[in-house]
Structure formats: structure tokens, C-alpha cells
Amino acid sequence: MLPSVVLLILVYLRHLVSASPVITGKEELSDLLDSSYGFNDASVVSAFVGELKALSNQNITKCEKCITRLAIGKSLSLLRPDLVPQVFTQWCQETAYWSNTTCTSTFGRNTVSNSNTGTNFADMLSLMDPFGYDGQLYCYYKESAQCAKPATPNVTLSHMWPEKQEKHYVAPEPSANDTINVLHISDFHIELDYTVGAEANCSTSMCCTPHSVNAKTHSGQSNVTWNSFYNSTYENTTLVKGSYIDVFSNSSIWVPATTFGYYECDAPEILINSSLNSIVQYSQENELDFEFAIFTGDLVDHDEIKYTGYQMTVESEEVIFQDMKDKLGSLPVYSVLGNHDTFPYGELGQENHGFTNYFAWNAELMADMWEDFGWLDADASQYARKHYTGFSVETKLGLKIISLNSNVWYKKNHYAYWNASQPDTFGQFEFLIDELVESEAKDQRVWVIAHIPFASDSLPIPSKLFAEVVERFSPYTIAGIFFGHTHLDQFEILYAGSGDDSKTIENVINVAWVAPAVTPWVENNPSWRYYSVDRKTFSVMDAYNFFTPLNETFNNNGEEPVWSFEYSARDGYNISWPETSPLNGTYWHQIASGVNQSLEVNQLYENYAKRFSPYVPDCANSDDCETDYCFLTSFTVDDYDNCVKNIA
């Protein structure tokens, strides 16, 4: 009897969905399901798992199967969301749809609340339209392109701003040789359980942890000849060299983790403190003062969800921000959160739809710390507390900094998949536009900071809308855009129009800076940078990049990493450029064109992107560099996808 009830639900559900992008009518559906409550939970689970399994034998497309699974899940989520995790996890594992670990992490019960609303996946099911854009989008991005990528709806936010005046089409001219310095750090990814001597050449999960293993059995002693295996730490800025650890006594280890980190691991705290110490030391030795700093997100490591959790996330956030405060002193650090800086991973729910209790802990924690550290005043802190940690702040020199939470547009955030054709379900773009309109009206320059670049891991509609906003308020108001996330030293250029034909110097609108990471994961040298910024216009005049060759710490007997100047953005590509002109989108267009046309420039870009690590790809003898030009010249995910398709 129960399977027929499931079928009846689906018929009823399909009728509701065809009329509304968000299903209503719970009372009627409740009446329909009354009979199902005569069955115990095990019977309900068995029936729904059976329906999901039966799809595998139906003569329909992969896309139709994916959409129908969502519809079955939606019917269950509206009345018994607590059973969604068990049903989908069991179906996933019994059909080997994914690995057991992936099934559990995707569908398992992993919210931090004590409610009975199931998982973030169940929340999404209860609100989404499986048969419309929502379902198509989900099945493309979240289920390995089971459906084709749907066409991006033609949405706009242009009704939210006034008409652009003639003066707004021209960027203000920088002053003559009057600059300030701004520090940019990103992507620390602290590995709290980093263990010297643990397996650094692991097959599963994050390497360099107590649970890191290599699937291949290793018999005999490691052939590694390194000697940097010390239990060391920092006291203030002084390295306290600890006792030597006999890592070679464990014959099962292929490559033992060294003191300051490894290329397949996230950053031990000692490496993070080394990077911060190098910043302080450089500024003191060169009598260089920073006006303020920006941090573009990601504090938590990349380990599997079974090794992460709420407490670990909180501890990671608290430890790194405290380290920043301890090392950088009174320097204001204007920060954003990254996709790893939440639990469950990558999730952020709309506050106006009953999900505040899931994620308010993070906004409260950030607002409290940032205000306690003197980075935000009470008003900005209060706004961050209620708006996904986003805020706007005016620096003492008059620059406005707008901080955004990029999980709003992150493709792995389940809450971004319901009502996905609507332009601003989180209200964050309204906040951004209101702040820009206000600044434009008083001729104020603005920096926008976020974690995830819109050509990388973004959903299409938010990506399109952000590009529209940037075009409207450039070049007069928006002086800088700054991201992290990719761990690479990169940039993204916004052009007027779309398609490769639009990528001309005349069509350049603006550019976004993508910062290198401190974490060496994966296969990069740790890095930080600072900008020379025009005091009047807040345009970036130059960027100075610093790095440490991590492999040189493997065999240095536990001594500190050596941090060195890598290159300046103005000089590093040998571009002829006026000294009084900022490094704007037009400047970076010339470099992107060089990457596209010259193997030598492409290789130079890759050297900088990974900071001369041993894993820099050889552009002449591999295809690892072929999408570089697409990334650098695409500001939206649709533009990037279309560009990659055109690569011969």
C-alpha cells in the first residue's frame, strides 16, 4: 500500500509545482499522507528508498531520473524531513551512486541545530521547484551534470539604481606620488591536527594528520632524507625549536610531514605564524606602515566532513583571527568568511526563511571578535551580526570597504538552489547596491571584498548580477575588487558585452584581484602581498608579492622559512605603463593578451600563480595552462564556461 501512497504524492506534487516555484498546500498534502502515519518509520524509509531505486530501471534520461529523485525527496521533506537523510543516504549507498563517505556527507544529518528539520539537503528540497530551473540547476552542478546546464534567465537589478551620469564613465585621476600601503592576506586554512611525522603522501582525506594513510602498503624505511622534524612553536616572534621527532621509526610512512608543512597539506599554525611574523619583520625593517589590511577568507582546513565539525570550525576561526590580532597589533583587518568558514561546509541559509538558527552562531562570533579587536565599530558589527557577516565600513582616509559573504553565490550551498531564478533571495545585492548608490552620490570611492571569484565556483545568476553591478558603478565609484579562494595569484577582467569577441582593450570595464594563499594546499608556495594605493582615488598603483619556497624547509634542520620578495605587479611582466597610471583593467588586459599569445608570458604567469613551487606546470609540454586565458578574461561563470568550450 505504501508505495502507491508515494506515487499519489508525486502526482499531487507535480500538480502543485506546475503552478508555483515554491510548493504550498501543506495542509492538503498532510491530509493525503495521513494514512502513511499508520506505518512505522522503517516502512516509510523502505518505501521511499524503493521508489528511488526503481528509477534506475526506468527507460528515462539521467536528467529525468535526477529531477524525479528531487520530486520524491520533496514529497518526503514537506511532512517527514527527519527521514530525508536516512532515505537518501541508504539509497545512495545501496545503489553505489557515490562512495559511502560521499553519500553520508551529502545527505546525512549534519546541521548544527537541534531541530527535526533534517539536513541542509532536506531544507532545500522543501522549498525548491524540482521540475523548473531549480531542479535543472541542481542536477547540473550538484549531481555531476546529470542534466545539461540550463540557460541563465535574463534577470536584472537595474531598477535599483539611478541612471549613470556622464561623469561616472571616467575614473578619477590619481594624485602624484602620494600613496598608502594596504596588506592583503588570504586562505590560511589552519590544520589544527597537523602532525609532524604523519603521512604527507596520503591517498585519502587531508594529509599530515593522525588519520592520513596511503592505500599502498609501504614495507621498509622511507627513502626520504629530510631532517626538519621538530616539535617547534613560536613565542611571540621567536621560534622555539622543540625536540626532534624520530619519524622514521614508523616504517609504514611513505613521506613524513615536516615541521612547517607540505604541499599536500593545509597550513600548520607554525607556518601561519611564520607568515605573519614575516609581514611584521618586513614592515619594520623597511619602515613601511600599513594603513589597514584585508583578509579574503578561508580559515578552516580541507579535511573530509567526518573529521570536521562545529567545534573544530569555531576553534579554527578563533585561533587564526587571534593570531592575526596578536601579530598585527592595532592594524585594522577587514575580513570576509570563505566557503570553509562555516559548518556544515559551504552552507548559508536565507535568514528570512527560518534558517537563522543554523548559522547565526557564526555571524555572532565574527561580529564579537571583529568589534573586540577594534576592526569594526559597533554599528558595522551589528550589521554583520544580522547580514551573513557582511558589512560596510569607512576607513579614516574616506575609502568605503564593502564586505560580502560569497556563500550566497557558492555552487555547493544547498540554500542557493531554491527559487534560484530570483535575483536576490539573500538580500545581499540590495545591500551592495544601496551602499554603492550612497557612495556615488557623494563621490566616494569603494573597495568590494569577498572570497569566491564569480568565474570560479559561482552560480550563474549571482555571477551575472554582480557583473552588472560592477559595470554600472565602474570606473567612477568602484576602485578595487578583491577575492581569494583559488589559492593562486590571479586576476579577472570584466569586459562590456559577452563572448571572446568582446575581449578588447576598448571594452575593459574593471578588474578583480585574486590573492595567493598562505596554505600550501595544493602544491603552491605560501604567499602574501601588499598594495601601493593612491591616497586620493584608492586605485592600486602596484602590488608587491612575497613567498617562501616551502621545499627549502624540508631539509633545513628545523630552521625558520625564509620569506623573500617575489615580484611587483608593475614590473613583473615587462609591460610599458605610465608611472602615474594605476594598474587597472586595461593594464591587466595587456597581460592577459600576452598569456593568450605568448608561451613565454603564459609560463611566467603560471610561475607567479603558484609562486615558483616545484609543481608549476610546464606550459610547453602539457595542456595544464590552456584555460588560463579564459579565467583571466572571464568575470562570470557563463563567460568562463563559454570560453573553455571554444578552446580547440
TrEMBL record:
GO terms for cellular component: extracellular region. It is found in: Secreted. Pfam families: ASMase_C, Metallophos. Residues 1-19 form the signal peptide. Transmembrane segments: none annotated. Its cofactor is Zn(2+). The keyword Glycoprotein applies. The keyword Secreted applies. Keywords: Glycoprotein, Hydrolase, Metal-binding, Secreted, Signal, Zinc. It comes from the Eukaryota. GO terms for molecular function: metal ion binding; phosphoric diester hydrolase activity. Residues 509-646 form the Sphingomyelin phosphodiesterase C-terminal domain. Residues 283-487 form the Calcineurin-like phosphoesterase domain. Belongs to the acid sphingomyelinase family. This is LAFE_0B04874g1_1.
